[in-house]
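>> Question from a student workshop board

For tomorrow's exercise we were told to take the sequence and the ligand below, predict the bound structure, and bring the output to class. My setup keeps failing. Could a helper post the expected result so I can at least see what it should look like? The ligand is adenosine-5'-triphosphate.
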Amino acid sequence: MGAHNSRWRPLRNALLLLAPVLLVLLVAFVIPMVYIFALSLQNEEQQFSLGNYALFLHDSYYVGILWRTIKLSFYTVLACLVFGYPVAMFMAKASGRMRGVVTFLIIAPHLISVVIRNFGWVVILGNKGWINTTLMNLGIIDKPLKLLYNELGVVIGLTDAYIVYMVLALVTSLYAVDTSLYKAAGILGASSVRKFVSITLPLSLPGILAGSTLVFSLSMSAYVTPALMGGSAVKVLPVLTYENVMITLNWPLSAALSFLLLGSTYALVTIFTKLVETRRYKEVFSGA
Amino acid sequence: MSQTIDVELRQVRKTFGSNIVVDEFDLQIQEGECISFLGPSGCGKTTTLNMIAGFLEPDGGEIRIKGKRMNGVPSNKRELGMVFQTYSLFPHMTVAENVAYGLKLRKVPKAEVKQRVAKALELVKLPQVADRYPKQLSGGQRQRIAIARALVIEPSLLLLDEPLSNLDAKLREELREEIKRLHMETGVTTIFVTHDQEEALYLSDRIVVLSNGKVEQIGTPLEIYNRPATEFVHTFIGKSNKLPAVVEVQDGETLQLRADAGFKLQATAKGQKLTAGSAAHAYIRPEKLRLAVPGTNPLGANSAQGRVRQLSFLGAFAECDVEIGSATVTVRIQTIGEHAGLKPGDPVALIWHPEDVFVFPGEER
Ligand SMILES: Nc1ncnc2c1ncn2[C@@H]1O[C@H](COP(=O)(O)OP(=O)(O)OP(=O)(O)O)[C@@H](O)[C@H]1O
Ligand SMILES: [Mg+2]
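>> Workshop helper replied:
Here is what the output should look like for this input. Compare the format with yours to find the bug.
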C-alpha cells in the first residue's frame, strides 16, 4: 500500500495542480468542441447527416472560399517572410539597445485595436487614399489603383497584423547563429549573397518554421481584417462562418465550417512541418 | 627555403576610436615560414590577423600578400585559409561538406572535390568522420576538421587564431605537434596567433612578440629566448627572477651591478649601454641558477648566500625558493640527487654565470 501510494503521489500532485486549468479547458473547450462537432453532423431538421461536409466536395462556392482562405494565408506567410527577414537580420546584428528600440517599434502598433489599424489602412489604400492621390497627382496613374476590398487588401492587412510574430521567431534563430561562421565562409571565398544562401538561411530554418506556422494559423482564422479590408468581395472561411451563425442562423453548417477550418489548418501545418523537418534538420537542430 | 617574400606588413596601424590597437607594424614573412604572433591578451594579435584576413581595414600602412597590395581587397578574394579559436564549423553541414565548401565555391569538378576532401581528411587523420555533423565530434576533432577545411583550398597563407586555446592541456600538446607536422608536410606559409609562449617556441620559425599594439621583437625562438630585445620580451617568455639593482661600472663587455637585495653581480652586456649609477633590472632564469654548499664562492661576484624558504615539486623538476637578503629567487633543481635532502631554513649558496644575467634599464630612483 505504501509503495503503491508513493508511486502515484507525483501524478496525484500534478493533477491537483493542473485541476483548475483542466476544469476550465473541459468546460470552455472540450465540451463545446464535442457539442459543435455533434452539431455539425446534423441537418437543419436536426437529423444525422454529412451534408454540411459534403458541400465541400461538390459546391464550388464553398470550395472556392476554402481555397481562397488557404491561398491568402499562404501569401500572408510569404509577405511576412519577405518583409520580416531583413528586419530580423538587422535586429540580430544590432546592439542590445538598438534591438530594444526596434522590438518596441514593431510591437507598439499592436497596442492599438486591430479595427482601428485596419481603418488606418483604408485611409492609406482607398481610392482617395494617400497612395492613390499621390500617384495621380504625380501623373503616374490616371485612375485609382484597387488596393482595398480585394485579395491584395486582405494580404496587406494580415501581413501588418501578424508580421511581428514572424520577426520575433526569426530574430530568435538568427541571433543564435555564431557570427564567426560568416567570417569562416568569407575567408573560404563566399560572397555576401553566398553567405546568406548557404549559412544564414539554412540556420534560420527553425525560425522560419515557427514563424510561418504561427502566421499561417492566425491568418487562416482571422476574421476582423478580412471582413474590413476585403469587404463582401473577398469572403474567407471565418467570415462565412460568422454569417452563418449570426445572419442565416444555420448553426449546423457553421459548426461544420469551423471543423473544416480547424482540420485544414492542422493538416497544412503538419504537412509543412514534415517537409521542413528532414532528417538533416533533425540531426542539426535536435537538442542533444 | 627560397627567399621569396610571401607576406609583407608595412607600418600597419589600426585604431578603434582614440584607442591605438596596432601601430608601426613592420613584418616580412618568407615563403613557407611559420610565424607566431605572441603577446598578452588585448595586445592586438587578433586585430592584426583580421587585417591580414581582410575582416578589418588598416587605418594606415599596407599589407601585401604574394606581392599584391591587399588594402581594400575583400576577404573572400584573398585566397587564405583561416582557423578560428571557436572552430567555426558550419553546424548544418557534415564534415565532408564543411571541407568541400571552399572547393565548391571555386567550382572545382565534383569528382575532384570528393578526392581532395578525402585527401584533406586523410591529412588530419580523420577520414572516418566524413559523414558526421560537427556537434558529433570532440573539440580536438573539430579543430582538425577546421584545419582540413582551411588547407583543402591550398591557400597562399594559413592563419590560425589561438586554435588550441579551447582545448585541454593534453590535447593542446597533441594538436600542436599535429600542426607542426602539417606545416612541414604542406609547406604552407603560416601565421599562428597565441598567448602561450611554449606554443610559440615549439612551432615557429620566427616569433613576433607584441605588447600594446607594438612589435617588441621579431626573431627566432632562440634569439627571443637568449637575446631578448626588451625587458617585456624577457619576462613574457619563460620564468625569470627580477632583481632591482644599480649599475656600478660598465667595463667594456662586463657590467658590475649591486642588487638592492644586498649582493653584487656581474653581467655580460648584450649591446646595451648603461651609465654608472643608473638604476637597472637584472634578471636570472631559475634554470640558470645553481645551488652550492653554503660558504663557497667559486665565481667571485657571481654568487650569493641565502636560505631555503620553500620547495615545490613539479614532476620532472622541482623549484626551490631561496631568500637572499630582502629578495626571494626561484631556482630550478633536479628532483633526484644531491639537493633532494633540502628543507626550508637550510642555508645555501647560489652561483651563476655572468652571461646568464640579463640587464635592462630600470626606473630612476
Ligand atoms: N571592434 C573593436 N572595437 C573597439 N575596440 C576593439 C575592437 N576589437 C578589438 N578592440 C580592442 O583592441 C585591443 C586588441 O584586441 P585584440 O582582439 O586584437 O587582442 P588580442 O591580442 O587578440 O587579445 P586576446 O589574446 O585576448 O585574443 C583590445 O584592447 C580590444 O579591446
Ligand atoms: Mg585574440
